[in-house]
Amino acid sequence: MVPVNVALPAELVSVAKLEQGDASLGVAKIIALELFREGVVSPGRAAELCGSPLAAFMDFAAAHGVPRLNYDLDELEEHRRTLSQLNACQLFPIPRRAFKVLR
């Protein structure tokens, strides 16, 4: 990745509680977090963009009030249908009680 230099006011870095010596990592994490929060990138891509392991990025996101899973009802319904289809094929038998939870 090609680095980009950005000048930030020292007060902004201080208020944001970023390390004075190398604020670039903190800024990269905040930008990646916002991209993830807005649904622009996946959590894996966000972690990659800021150079953080996925688990550490997800902990960072949770600490900033961003849920680990960002499911909407359409995605949940799509996954429920997929599970039903897999169960119908008997490739991966799923206990009946799992379908009660998903409804």
Protein architecture, described:
With 103 residues, this protein is mostly helical. It folds into two domains: 10-63, no CATH class; 73-102. 60% of the residues lie in helices and 0% in strands. It has helices at 10-15, 23-37, 43-49, 54-63, 73-89, 96-102. Helix 3 (43-49) packs across helix 4.
In short, what is this structure?
With 103 residues, the chain is mainly α.
Ordered list of secondary-structure elements with their pairings:
Layout: H1 10-15, H2 23-37, H3 43-49, H4 54-63, H5 73-89, H6 96-102
Overall shape: elongated
Overall average residue pLDDT? 83
Structural class, from helix and strand content?
mainly alpha
The protein's oligomeric status is single chain
Please supply descriptive tags for the structure shown above.
6 helices; 103 residues; elongated; mainly alpha; single chain; 2 domains
